[in-house]
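Good morning,

Attaching, inline, the C-alpha cells for the sequence recovery test we're adding to the shared suite. The designed sequence is right after.
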C-alpha cells in the first residue's frame, strides 16, 4: 500500500472555483438556510445494504421534472450505449486511530495527509489539552509524538512504529466513518466497515472518506455494464476531512472548499471526450471532470489540487448525468446536486425520499439524475 504524499512531488497546483463562484452578484447572495431540509434521524443509514446493488435508486429526470423509484441493480436499463460512467478509484485508508496518553486518557486521531518520513497531519480529539511534545501510546506498543500545532484543528504527529506504517494501520486503524454513523467501541474494532466503506474498484490509497455513490457497485454489475457497451472510466480524487465539516458561512458564496488532490489520465480524458454522455458517479468524480474541462467541455489530462466549489448558478461543462447518495442539508454536496438538477426539483425528490423511507447519507440509498 502506497500513500499519496500531499505537498510533495512535481504536481501542478490547480485552484479553481468554477464559473458558479461568480454567477451571483453581491445583492443576490443566497443564504445557506435556503438549502436546509427536515429529516427524521431514523432514516440515516447506520449500516450498508446487505447486498451492495440492492440499494434503492430514485431516478430524477431534469427535462421532464419527473421522479421515479427503482433499484440500483437496474442502473444499466437507464443508460444508453455510448454513455461513459466516470468513477473515483481512490481507496479509503484505516485513518482513525485511538491512542492513550501517559495519564491514561484516550485520544482519537484522524489522519489527514502524509508528510515527510513518518510524520502526518492529523486531527486530534479532544484537542484542547493537546500540547507539543505529548506522547501517545497504542495497544501494539507503537507510539506517536506531537511535533507541531498547525491550527485549532490540525497538528503534526511523528509515529514510531517497529514495522511498516501500513502494517501498523492494518493492526490499529479503523474505518474513518462519518460522525453520523454511530459505533460502540466493540463495533469499532470490527473490520466489516473497512470492507463495506470502500468501493469494489478502489485502487489508489489516500482518502479519509469514501466516494459513497460508488459503494453500490458490485464486480458482477460492473462486468455486466461493460459487456453492455457502457464504458467505465476511473479518475482519482482523494477525499479529505473537509467532507465532514459543515459550511459555516451565512451566505453560500462565501464558503471555500478544502483543496483535494486529483488526477485524470490521458486515457481517461480521451474516453470522456468521445463519450456521447458522461455520467459521473458521485460528487467527487463530478468535480474532477469539471475541473479538467475547458469552456467547450473538452477534458484534458491533469494532476494537481482542486478547490472547485459547485453551487447553484454553476454552468456544467461536461457532466451530463449524476449518480449520488442523499446528502446532509446545507452541505457542499447538497449544493452541488441542487446546482445540477435545480433546487426545487431536488427539494421534491428529497421530500419523496423521506416519505418513501429511503435511507440517507453515506450507507444509504442513491439517486440517478439525468
Amino acid at each position: 500500500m502506497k500513500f499519496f504524499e500531499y505537498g510533495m512531488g512535481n504536481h501542478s497546483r490547480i485552484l479553481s472555483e468554477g464559473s458558479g463562484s461568480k454567477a451571483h452578484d453581491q445583492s443576490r447572495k443566497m443564504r445557506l438556510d435556503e438549502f436546509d431540509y427536515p429529516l427524521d434521524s431514523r432514516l440515516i443509514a447506520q449500516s450498508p445494504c446487505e447486498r451492495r446493488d440492492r440499494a434503492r435508486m430514485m431516478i430524477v429526470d431534469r427535462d421532464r421534472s419527473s421522479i421515479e423509484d427503482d433499484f440500483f441493480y437496474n442502473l444499466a436499463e437507464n443508460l444508453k450505449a455510448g454513455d461513459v460512467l466516470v468513477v473515483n478509484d481512490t481507496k479509503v485508508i484505516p485513518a482513525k486511530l485511538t491512542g492513550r496518553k501517559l495519564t491514561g486518557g484516550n485520544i482519537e486521531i484522524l489522519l489527514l495527509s502524509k508528510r515527510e518520513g513518518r510524520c502526518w497531519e492529523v486531527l486530534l480529539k479532544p484537542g484542547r489539552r493537546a500540547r507539543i511534545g505529548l506522547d501517545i501510546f497504542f495497544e501494539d506498543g507503537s507510539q506517536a509524538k506531537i511535533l507541531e500545532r498547525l491550527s485549532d484543528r490540525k497538528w503534526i504527529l511523528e509515529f514510531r512504529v517497529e514495522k511498516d506504517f501500513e502494517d501498523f494501520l492494518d493492526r490499529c486503524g479503523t474505518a474513518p466513518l462519518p460522525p453520523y454513523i454511530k459505533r460502540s467501541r466493540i463495533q469499532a474494532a470490527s473490520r466489516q466497515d473497512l470492507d463495506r466503506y470502500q468501493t469494489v474498484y478502489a485502487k489508489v490509497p489516500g482518502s479519509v472518506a469514501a466516494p459513497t455513490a460508488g459503494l453500490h457497485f458490485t464486480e458482477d454489475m460492473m462486468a455486466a455494464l461493460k459487456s453492455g457497451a457502457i464504458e467505465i472510466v476511473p479518475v482519482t480524487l482523494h477525499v479529505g476531512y473537509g467532507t465532514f465539516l459543515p459550511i459555516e458561512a451565512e451566505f453560500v458564496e462565501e464558503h471555500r472548499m478544502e483543496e483535494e488532490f486529483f488526477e485524470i489520465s490521458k486515457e481517461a480524458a480521451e474516453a470522456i471526450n468521445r463519450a456521447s454522455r458522461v455520467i459521473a458517479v458521485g460528487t467527487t468524480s463530478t468535480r474532477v471532470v469539471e475541473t479538467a474541462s475547458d469552456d467547450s467541455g473538452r477534458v484534458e489530462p491533469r494532476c494537481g489540487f482542486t478547490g472547485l466549489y459547485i453551487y447553484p448558478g454553476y454552468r456544467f461543462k461536461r457532466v451530463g448525468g449524476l449518480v449520488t447518495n442523499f446528502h446532509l442539508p446545507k452541505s457542499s454536496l447538497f449544493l452541488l446536486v441542487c446546482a445540477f438538477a435545480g433546487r426545487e426539483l431536488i427539494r421534491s425528490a428529497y421530500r419523496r425520499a423521506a416519505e418513501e423511507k429511503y435511507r440517507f447519507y453515506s450507507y444509504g440509498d442513491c439517486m440517478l439524475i439525468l
